[in-house]
Design a protein that fits this description.
The protein is of the alpha/beta class and 363 residues long. Helix content is 31%, strand content 20%.
């Protein structure tokens, strides 16, 4: 039995619900009244609804993402049919913007747009105390990152051994790319670094082998990135894979030099090229230097053992096949280990210009 169930459908079993672990870690005095229940999108909604209702919860908090809207929709419908008094709270990036147009909005009792690390606890306490808010949307501001409890101890031994472990040292992104939700708030906020690094060290000591940094632009500030990479190098263990999102035309020589010190298989850089067309780059607020991108990727390929994964977004080509082929040739000329093309369109319930629906991710 649990008064609160925190749940989501992950895209794959190996993925872990990072955001829900933050909510659980920050529940304070009601933490022992909550459980985390993960599923993946290959599971039947009716089975997941049954697993949720087996706890007889008063509150169910769903993490909503672009990959799990249909499953979440069906699960909530089942829960509300069987247990209409169960309070459904929605959060996550897919429900944080243009939420009133979202198909899940009508099914929910409450929506928390934005970062809910601390707001969910406040809402849950009010509901459990019999003093629920009257408004459906529970507003929140980005929390002070010095006040957040870190969630890393909530990764189980099984998680550590078999799944991708997500970590972060920053939130936000300095860029304003029109295709990305991170552009809505283009500030970068930094966690106190030493506590995060110590948590990462403990994860490595516990046997974690797949650590993925979800910092939107890891190399945005050189001093910070160097400190993180030097710590990881000093505490590296064979078999550990470290994944970072990098802006290639801004990758500093100091970080390239540090990358050379890691053994093969240790580093994976996801390099956001997005477009090679200067006109398109300007139109989507993505200023970049194409020659620097190509030179940087070639330098990484020729002088380091970093596994390179480049990204292109075909939506920005306005579906022009000739342009797309040119971009693919340009990206492949750098010979990355993997080149992914994303074909995006605007979500049907969104009125803004952020194309967030993945239709294809294979070239």
């Amino acid at each position: 039995m649990a008064d609160i169930v925190l749940t989501t459908f992950n895209a794959k079993y190996v993925h872990t619900a990072f955001g829900l672990r933050y909510l659980l870690a920050n529940l304070g005095p009601i933490k022992d009244r909550a459980v985390l229940l993960e599923a993946d999108i290959h599971q039947w909604p009716i089975d997941h609804a049954e697993a949720i209702l087996a706890h007889k919860p008063r509150i169910v908090g769903f993490g909503v993402y672009i990959w799990n809207v249909p499953q979440t929709y069906e699960t909530i419908k089942i829960i509300k049919t069987i247990s209409p008094d169960t309070v459904v709270v929605l959060g996550g990036p897919e429900i944080s913007y243009a939420y009133e147009r979202h198909p899940l909005y009508a099914l929910a009792d409450y929506v928390i747009p934005g970062e809910a690390d601390l707001a969910f606890r406040e809402l849950a306490q009010r509901i459990l105390a019999g003093n629920p808010p009257h408004e459906k949307v529970f507003p929140t501001e980005p929390p002070d990152l010095t006040e957040i409890e870190l969630p890393y101890s909530l990764y189980s031994d099984s998680d550590v051994q078999h799944r991708v472990i997500y970590v972060e040292t920053t939130r936000g992104c300095p860029f304003k790319c029109q295709f990305c939700l991170s552009a809505i708030d283009h500030r970068v906020r930094y966690f106190p670094l030493d506590p995060v690094l110590q948590e990462i060290k403990r994860l490595i000591e516990r046997g974690a082998t797949k650590l993925k940094f979800v910092d939107r632009t890891f190399n945005v500030r050189l001093e910070h990135a160097v400190q993180v990479m030097e710590f990881l190098l000093a505490n590296y263990r064979p078999g550990v894979s470290l994944h970072f999102e990098i802006v290639p035309d801004r990758l500093q020589p100091e970080l390239i030099e540090l990358s050379r010190k890691f053994p093969p298989g240790a580093l994976r850089f996801e390099l956001g090229i997005q477009t090679f067309n200067p006109e398109v780059a300007s139109r989507i607020n993505r200023p970049q230097v194409n020659k620097k991108i190509i030179d940087t990727i070639r330098t990484l390929r020729e002088t380091t053992s970093v596994h390179l994964h480049t990204d292109l977004i075909f939506w920005t080509a306005r579906r022009n096949t000739r342009i797309v082929c040119h971009w693919i040739r340009s990206a492949c000329s750098t010979q990355p280990a993997r080149n992914t093309g994303w074909y995006l369109k605007t979500s049907p319930w969104s009125s803004n210009s952020h194309p967030r629906r993945t239709l294809s991710n294979a070239i």
